[in-house]
Specification:
The protein has about 90 residues and is α+β, with helices and mostly antiparallel strands. The chain is built from four helices and three strands; from the N terminus they run E-H-H-E-E-H-H. It has a domain of about 40 residues. It is about 40% helix and about 20% strand. A hairpin with a 2-residue loop joins strand 2 and strand 3. The protein is rod-shaped, with a radius of gyration of 35 Å. The N and C termini lie far apart (about 100 Å).
């Protein structure tokens, strides 16, 4: 089984004939760019990363996080006595 050969282009081709090199990348999937006869760069099609879906929102946790904290029994009694005054 022979390896798949990728298309090649020179740096000069990139400068002077970019639309042709672009079509090569689109058709072959990869183009090796040579400089002075030696392979230097590899052009491949950009495939954007798939966006991960947002995690589900826990509405109950958001609601309870924004609620005031309840006071303890001793603090409630003290508040009641303070509000009651000298009655």
């Amino acid at each position: 089984m022979s390896p798949i050969m990728s298309a090649t282009a020179t740096v000069r081709d990139l400068r002077n004939h970019f639309p042709k090199v672009r079509r090569l990348v689109e058709s072959a999937g990869e183009v090796v760019v040579t400089e002075r006869g030696a392979a230097k760069f590899r052009l491949v099609l950009h495939t954007p990363a798939r966006a991960k879906p947002a995690p589900p929102v826990d509405h109950w946790a958001r609601l309870t996080a924004s609620q005031p904290r309840p006071i303890g029994a001793a603090a409630a009694r003290a508040l009641h006595e303070e509000n009651r005054g000298e009655r």
